[in-house]
Amino acid sequence: MRYWDTSALLPLMLKQRCSENIREIIKEDKAISTSWISKVELSSAICRLEREGHISEIELDTLLRRVDMLIQSCCIVHPSEKLSDRAIRALRSHSLKSLDAIQLASAFIVSKDVTNNFEFITLDKQLGNIARKEGFIVRGE
Fold this sequence. Notes:
Elements: E1 2-4, H1 6-13, H2 19-27, E2 32-35, H3 37-51, H4 57-72, E3 75-77, H5 81-93, H6 98-110, E4 119-121, H7 125-133, E5 137-139
Parallel strand pairs: 1-2, 1-4, 2-3, 4-5
Helix pairs in contact: 1-2, 1-3, 3-4, 5-6
């Protein structure tokens, strides 16, 4: 099992330059683990594309259904006191946005705080660099 940041899940929903690379990585994974916020972040990115005229309302509805199906198939890290505490610890140690801190904290929970040999899949270079500093093996960048 690997931890999947939202940025690495989006190319599964939409054709992007990195989509093939991400599809190859996901073939190696028996289960996708991600944070509960990934559904909101994916939906936000897709809704923004519709607002900006890049996709139609019909495509929006289809993509939002695909997000639901993807998230239902994932191992989700749900909100908890442990998650909040771990995210705050990450914010104290690194210059992170709050949602990135939740993603990183979620990865720590999935890895049971054993980051060596645990893969963190992200396309976010800043988050990837921080995950690497914390000992994760970062892929997807």
